[in-house]
Amino acid sequence: MAHLLWGHIYYKDHFAGTLRQEPGDRTSFTYHDSYLSSGQPSIAHTLPLQAAPFLSESGLPPFFDNLVAEGWLEEAQTRLLAKRRASRFELLLAFGQDCAGAVSVIDPEPQERGIIKPDNPMDMAVMAGRASLSGIQPKLALIEQDGTFRPARARELSTHIGKFPSPRHENLTTNEFLTTMTLKTLLPDDRIVDLHMGTIEGLTDQALIITRFDRTADGQRIHFEEFNQLLGYPSDAKYGGSHKRMADFIRETPGCLPAEIYRLYLRILAGLLLGNTDMHLKNFAMVHTDAG
């Protein structure tokens, strides 16, 4: 009988429930009774607090599917699991300790068998950090320590993200740095991430080092959801929505501030002025606050 995967889901440091592979291609998520009575919020807009399980008929529920790494990082993780092709559930279990936002995925039955020993510094950092990051270009989760930066290690919560030169697109990190600095000029009243070009301990390539907006100064998680998650789309459908659909969500959803539609419009307009043709649903998000 095939072994069905399952994992523990945490919201910040609180055990929230269980993600479980079901027969066929189905997956379920069930909140734990202790979490339901704890006063903590739901972990996702599409997963409101309830005792009954949520069932996805095909693969991971969209919220979790969007936590799985993409592109270069997904390929590196698959290679480290000694697989030609790994399921998205396998990747999330193995590398979901440090995800975007405040949710993490922990394997209660970690398997070292089948995991290969990395033979280069980038793969070693991927294996050690066990982080899951969106975006198709080479990137690693980083820690700032005494003014220098190094790859995050197991059970460490990263403070920064390092983006590295792409073998397919020349000067990509430099271009992102320059366009982000220009964006700060175009949108002086907006909150734009801090970033700079720098070096990473143990690695030779210069990286674009970005402060994580989903981490506090004292290293706590801040919960947010990409619009792909908020709208219930799987990761590979990130180009299937529209900017209007995002605006409609803000307008129609209790707890959202209608003024955020104006902020969204300004960001889209600035992106167009800068020649950004990749403004898909995973590149826009909303932060969860106590007010909504």
What does this 3D model show about the protein?
The chain is of the alpha+beta class and 292 residues long. The protein folds into 3 domains: 6-106, no CATH class; 121-211, no CATH class; 224-287, no CATH class. The protein is 27% helix and 19% strand. The protein contains 9 helices and 12 strands. A 5-stranded antiparallel sheet has the order 4-3-2-1-5. The protein has a 5-stranded antiparallel sheet with strand order 7-6-8-10-9. The longest helix is centred in the middle third of the chain and has 15 residues, at 172-186. It is globular. The termini are far apart. The mean pLDDT is 93.
Give the low-confidence spans. none
Cα distance spanning the termini: 44 Å
Series of H and E elements: EEEHEHHHEHEEEHEEEHHHE
Taken from the alpha-carbon principal axes, the silhouette is globular
How much of the sequence lies in strands comes to: 15-25%
Number of domains: 3
Count of DSSP H/I helices? 9
Identify the strand order in the major beta sheet. Answer: 4-3-2-1-5
Structural class: alpha+beta
Largest sheet: 5 strands, antiparallel
Helix share bin: 25-40%
Strands, total number: 12
**Rounded Rg:** 19 Å
Mean pLDDT value = 93
